[in-house]
């Protein structure tokens, strides 16, 4: 049957994005929003990467399971992803935990987040399910993973990163044979198994899984009846298939989307303040590792209607300027100097202020004479005149959330506590 197929496999697939993550390691950035809803790259949210990959891969049925502090995420999805049309056999479902099959209010785990919506999934009659994490930054063509899944005869195909072996201790690691069939799945091993023929590297799970829909529904129903299960794909579903069926690893290098400017496969878990800052600041490089300007694989998001960025004043020490920086629409750089910084929509940077290594979320106001270095500033913060951050580590740590690498996360609540 598959040999006679005349259209892409993605047309018969549904992408199911698990977007309920708490993201506690991002500290105050996730006090009011789920990790997938955290801003990234000047315009987007983190979840836009998984959703854009699905759309660009040709998948036209998408479900997003939400849970923790979901309002910001749901509002973004309603504004930015409302263009799917049922008359074109397209659908986009936002799926909060809603007690559909149980009296438990919350999703008990990643597998339960799919199980509780089995009736919705089955109504669509899709042949394949692509299960995705909604909190990673990467570009990937899921059609290629679907093709491998069908060609290999696998019951589950697991997306995997090749990482240095001893860096895989924080991941679920696939132990594979020479044909990439998974023979064992080890969660956060102290001594990760190497790849056959490349023992210094290991295959770490990306939290991306492809199933035939019918088989997945059977698995989920069996798991739901198992009283000792944690209802989790990584801890329960995948190990069960590895032991009782055929699980195959799909290497990210085989389906990573790269422009002519991207030298290697790019995947980031921006789950800490340091990693979040670094991934955003990396975009200011002359040739960044992640090309967000690649029009052949666009990152779709909510396209705000905003005026252009504006730079004003040309006096000594009061010159609106930006070097090696990204500045979004509706920003006004009024006599402020930016270096290696990334500004989201609607930022106001006032005269004589200087920003270096700054990730500034939407609608922030930078007061005059402020000097800010290596900071992440949450949405809507008003930075008072003359504030200095990035010169005195002890003072910074007493006022703000200072990371191990010296990055200061600044929120309005922290500013309100200052005695200036």
From TrEMBL:
Keywords: ATP-binding, Carbohydrate metabolism, Glycogen biosynthesis, Glycogen metabolism, Nucleotide-binding, Nucleotidyltransferase, Transferase. Homotetramer. Its EC number is 2.7.7.27. Involved in the biosynthesis of ADP-glucose, a building block required for the elongation reactions to produce glycogen. Catalyzes the reaction between ATP and alpha-D-glucose 1-phosphate (G1P) to produce pyrophosphate and ADP-Glc. Gene3D superfamilies: Hexapeptide repeat proteins (2.160.10.10), Spore Coat Polysaccharide Biosynthesis Protein SpsA, Chain A (3.90.550.10). Residues 16-284 form the Nucleotidyl transferase domain. It comes from the Bacteria. Pathway: Glycan biosynthesis; glycogen biosynthesis. One of its GO terms (molecular function) is glucose-1-phosphate adenylyltransferase activity. Belongs to the bacterial/plant glucose-1-phosphate adenylyltransferase family. This is Glucose-1-phosphate adenylyltransferase. Alpha-D-glucose 1-phosphate binds at residues 107, 172, 187-188, 205. Residues 307-410 form the Glucose-1-phosphate adenylyltransferase/Bifunctional protein GlmU-like C-terminal hexapeptide domain. It catalyses: alpha-D-glucose 1-phosphate + ATP + H(+) = ADP-alpha-D-glucose + diphosphate. It comes from Mycoplana dimorpha. The record marks 67, 106 as: Could play a key role in the communication between the regulatory and the substrate sites.
């Amino acid at each position: 049957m598959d040999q006679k197929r005349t259209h892409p496999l993605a047309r018969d697939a549904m992408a199911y994005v698990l977007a309920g993550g708490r993201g506690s390691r991002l500290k105050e950035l996730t006090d009011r929003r789920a990790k997938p809803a955290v801003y990234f790259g000047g315009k987007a949210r983190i979840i836009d990467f998984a959703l854009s990959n699905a759309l660009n891969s040709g998948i036209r049925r998408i479900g997003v399971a939400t849970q923790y502090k979901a309002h910001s995420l749901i509002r973004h999805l309603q504004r930015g992803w409302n263009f799917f049309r049922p008359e074109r056999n397209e659908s986009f479902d936002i799926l909060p935990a809603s007690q559909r099959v149980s009296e438990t209010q919350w999703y008990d785990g990643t597998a339960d987040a799919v199980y509780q919506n089995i009736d919705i999934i089955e109504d669509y009659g899709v042949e394949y399910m692509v299960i995705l994490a909604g909190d990673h930054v990467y570009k990937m063509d899921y059609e290629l993973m679907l093709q491998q899944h069908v060609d290999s005869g696998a019951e589950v195909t697991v997306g995997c990163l090749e990482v240095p072996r001893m860096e895989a201790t924080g991941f679920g690691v696939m132990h594979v044979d020479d044909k990439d069939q998974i023979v064992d799945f080890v969660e956060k091993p102290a001594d990760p198994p190497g790849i056959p023929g490349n023992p210094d590297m290991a295959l770490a799970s990306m939290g991306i899984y492809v199933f035939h829909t019918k088989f997945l529904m059977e698995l989920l129903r069996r798991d739901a009846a198992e009283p000792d299960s944690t209802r989790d794909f990584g801890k329960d579903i995948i190990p069960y298939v590895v032991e009782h069926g055929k699980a195959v690893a799909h290497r990210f290098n085989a389906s990573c989307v790269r422009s002519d400017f991207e030298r290697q496969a790019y995947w980031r878990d921006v789950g800490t303040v340091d990693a979040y800052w670094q991934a955003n600041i990396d975009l200011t490089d002359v040739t960044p590792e992640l090309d967000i300007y690649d029009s052949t694989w666009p990152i779709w998001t909510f396209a705000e209607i905003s005026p252009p960025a504006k730079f004003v004043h040309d006096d000594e020490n009061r010159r609106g300027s930006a070097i090696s920086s990204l500045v979004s629409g509706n920003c006004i750089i009024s006599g402020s100097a930016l270096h290696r910084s990334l500004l989201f929509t609607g930022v106001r940077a006032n005269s004589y202020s200087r920003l270096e290594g700054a990730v500034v979320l939407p609608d922030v106001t930078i007061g005059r004479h402020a000097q800010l270095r290596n900071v992440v500033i949450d949405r809507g913060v008003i930075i008072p005149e003359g504030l200095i951050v990035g010169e005195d580590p002890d003072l910074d740590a007493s006022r703000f959330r200072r990371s191990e690498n010296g990055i200061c996360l600044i929120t309005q609540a922290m500013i309100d506590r200052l005695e200036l």
